[in-house]
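Per reviewer request, we include the raw input and output of the structure prediction for the construct analysed in the revised manuscript.
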Amino acid sequence: MEIFSWVSVISIFLCLFASGSRSIENFHQAFPIVEPDPGHTKLRLSREGLEAIERITNPIAAVAVIGPYRSGKSFLLNQLLSLSCYEGFGVGHMRDTKTKGIWVWGTPIELDIDGVRTSVFYLDTEGFESVGKSNVYDDRIFALATVMSSVLVYNLPETIREADISRLSFAVELAEEFYGRVKGQDVAFEPAKLLWLIQRDFLQGKSVQEMVKEALQHVPNKDGDKNIDVVNRIRDSLDIMGDNSTAFSLPQPHLQRTKLCEMNDLELDPLYVKKREKLKELVASIIRPKIVQGKTLNGKEFVSFLEQILEALNKGEIPSTGSLVEVFNKGILERCLKLYSEKMVKLVLPLSEQSLQDAHERSRGEMMQVFDEQHFGRHHAKKSVMQLDEEVQKVYKNVVLANEYKSSKLCEALYTECEDKMDQLQVLRLPSMAKFNAGFLQCNRSFEHECVGPSKSKYEQRMIKMMGKSRSLFIKEYNHRLFNWLVAFSLVMVVVGRFVIKFILIEIGAWILFIFLETYTRMFWSAESLYYNPAWHFIVATWETLVYSPILDLDRWAIPIGALASLLVLYWRCYGRRKHGSRWLLPLYSNHKNGPNRPRSD
C-alpha cells in the first residue's frame, strides 16, 4: 500500500513536470510570434513562434506580406508555400480579421543563396484599417515587418492609393537613416527589399512598374496643402530605395473568392497559376539572409534582434526611426564612451586647466571620429550624439574634480614645504641675507614650476603673502642678530688672538670691531642709525662674502670648520712649537725676562 502511494506521488510529479516543460512537437503549422496587447495599441512577443525560430541554426531570411485587411495576404502566403488553406495560415472571410499581430510558418523553406544554406521563414501580418484598431498599432505592425524581413511584399488590391504611399513613410525614414551608409562599412541591418504586388486583372496597357512609377509622381499642390506636401516628400524619398524595390502584378485567381480554399490549381485561372510561379521565382531571386551589423543571424540571434526592435517600437506613443537608431547606436555609444574614459584615465594629474581642456578636446575628437565612422542613422543620430556628449560631460566633470583635488594636494604640499623652509631660514646660526634670498628664490621657482592645476592661483596668493611676511620678518631681525653676533664674535677673537693664538693683529682687529660697534651706538643713541652707515654696509658685505657663497655655506660648515681649527691650534700649541719653534708665527708676545738668552744668576 505504501509502495503504491509513493508511485502515485512520483507519477503526479512527473505529469506536472512534463506539462510545465511542454515543447512544440509539430512545427508544420502557423505560430504567432508577435501579438497585440489587450489595448490593441502595442505589441508583445509570443513564446510559441519564437521557439519555432530559435531552433534554426542556419542563417535566416524572412518574407513578410503586408497590406490592408481582407486583401488576401494569408491566401497568398499559402500559395507561395504550396499549402492549402486547411494546412497553412488561417484564411478568414468574415469582416473581422483572422490574423492578429504577426504569424510565422513553423517550417522554413531551405534555399541555397550564394552558396549559403539559408532557412526562409514566411510571415503573415495583421491587415491595416480593420475595425477596432488605432493607426499607431498599424504603424507598429508595418514598422516591425519592415525591419525584420528580408523581402517585404506590399500586397495591394486593384490599385495604389494615397494612404498606401503614406504608410511607406516609416520605410522611407529607415532608408534615409540606414541605407545611406558609406560603402564597405557595416550597417545596422540591411533593409528589406520592397516588392509592390498589385492584384489586378487589367493594367490597361501599362506594365506594373509603370503603374507604380505613375502612382509615385508628384501630386499638384497649388493651394499648399500640408498633407499633400508630406506625401510628396515621401514620393521623393522613395527614390532613395532605388533598386531596392520592384513591382509585380498578379491577376485574380478566381471570380468566386469565397471558395478559393476549396479549389486546386486546375480550377484556378491558368494565368494566375503561371504568374504565381513567376512570383515564387522572383521572391527566391531577390531574397538574401538577414544581415545585422555585418553578419547573418541564426534562430536565437534573430529572436534577440526581434526583441530589441520590438522594445524600440513600443517606446513612446508612436513607433519612430529615432528609437531604432538608439537601439543600434547603444553599443557604439558604450564603446566610444569607454574609449574616451580610457584616454582620460591615462592623464597624469594634476594638469593646468588649459592642458586638461586640450586633452578633453583631443580625446573627444578621437571618440567622435570613431562614432562618425561606426554610428547608424543620419538625421536621428543627432540624438545619439547629444546622449554621448551628456555622458562625456559626466566623465569630464569627474576628471575635473579629480584634477582640482590633486592640484590642491600638490600645491598644499609645496606651500607647506616652502613655509617650513622660510621658518628654517629665520633661525640660521649665522644670519645671511644671501642665503635667505637664495632659499626664497628656490621656493618661488619650485612652487611656480611644480604647482599646476586650478588651485595654483589660490595658492600663489597665499605664497605671496607668506613669503612677503617671512622676508619682512627676516630683514627686521637680520641687522639686530648680526650686530649681536659681531659683538660676541669680536670679544671671542680678542681672547683667541691674545691667549690662544697669541697673534696681536687678530686681537687688534677684534678690539677695533668691538670699539666701533659699542661706541657708535652710544654716540648716535640707537643701533638702527648704525645700519645706514657706509662702514656697516662694508661690514655686512664682508660678512655675507665669508658666510655664504655658492661654494661654501659657513652656516652649515661652521661647527666642523671650528672643530678642525681648534684641533690645529691644539696641535700647534702642543707639538708644533717644540718641533718648529716660534719662527712660524710672529713673536709678538715673546717674554724677554724669561727668554732663553737671559743671563743666569747665582
